[in-house]
Design goal:
Layout: E1 2-9, H1 19-24, E2 31-32, E3 35-42, H2 48-60, E4 64-70, E5 77-80, E6 82-84, E7 111-113, H3 118-127, E8 132-135, H4 142-157, E9 162-168, H5 186-202
Parallel strand pairs: 1-3, 1-4, 4-9, 5-8
Antiparallel strand pairs: 2-3, 5-9, 6-7
Helix pairs in contact: 2-4, 3-5
Keywords: Cytoplasm, Hydrolase, Protease, Thiol protease
Active site: 80, 143, 167
Pfam family, one: Peptidase_C15
Length: 215
């Protein structure tokens, strides 16, 4: 049976939960489209997150890899288009590291595009009744660090394996003391990720529809 690797992050920046892991851990060992989903928890650390990620990829030899992470302040499930070759951390990671203006892969390309059918995934999530959007930036923190490195690694080591990243809003309990911040229930996030995975497994060529931004 085929395997799908889906990753999420541990809590960071003083949080006690990370919405990505709260959803992803519920998908572990679920069967979708003839594939077994395997969940993997990544440390919120520059460098070490990639060690854990690559170990999981090499052990599982998955058909596709979907990474996820928290994007506090966003109101929709955000399917990322691109990872860029820069670490520029506004806050320190969970080991106190805070790289500034450092390339992730010295001499590597400036960016990689996700190889998952991102527009079809957004359409499927919306059809499930959950807000979703194409995101043009995964930031410059550990999420982008993982996205860029994942795509770089697959490009060179496993070009047949597709990969990408989805950002998830805060959970409702995380915004109780954050007036005006958006949130999304874990149940809705799980439904969104299921729709995204099913679409990624069943869609060879992405759909052609607008997903751009003016700013």
């Amino acid at each position: 049976m085929k395997t799908v690797l889906i990753t999420a992050f541990e809590p960071f920046d003083g949080e006690t939960v990370n919405p990505s892991w709260e959803a992803v851990r519920q998908l572990d060992q679920r069967e979708l489209m003839g594939a077994t989903v395997v969940a993997c928890l990544l440390p919120c650390e520059f460098g070490q997150s990639l060690v854990v990620l690559k170990q999981a990829i090499n052990r599982l030899r998955p058909t596709l890899v979907m990474a996820t992470g928290q994007a506090g302040g966003r109101s929709e499930v955000s399917v990322e288009r691109i990872g860029i070759n820069i670490d520029d951390a506004r806050i320190a990671d969970n080991r106190g590291r805070q790289p500034v203006d450092q390339p992730i892969v010295p001499e590597g390309p400036a960016a990689y595009f996700a190889t998952l059918p991102i527009k079809a995934m957004v359409a499927a999530i919306r059809e499930a009744g959950i807000p979703a959007v194409i995101s043009q930036t995964a930031g410059t923190y550990v999420c982008n660090h993982v996205l860029y490195s994942l795509l770089h690694y697959l490009h060179h080591a496993m070009p047949e394996v597709r990969g990408g990243f989805i950002h998830i809003p805060y959970l409702p309990e995380q915004v109780v003391a954050r007036q005006g911040q958006a949130s999304m229930s874990s149940d809705n996030v799980i439904r969104a990720l299921e729709a995204a995975l099913i679409t990624a497994l069943s869609t060879e060529h992405d759909i052609r529809q607008t997903g751009g931004a003016t700013h």
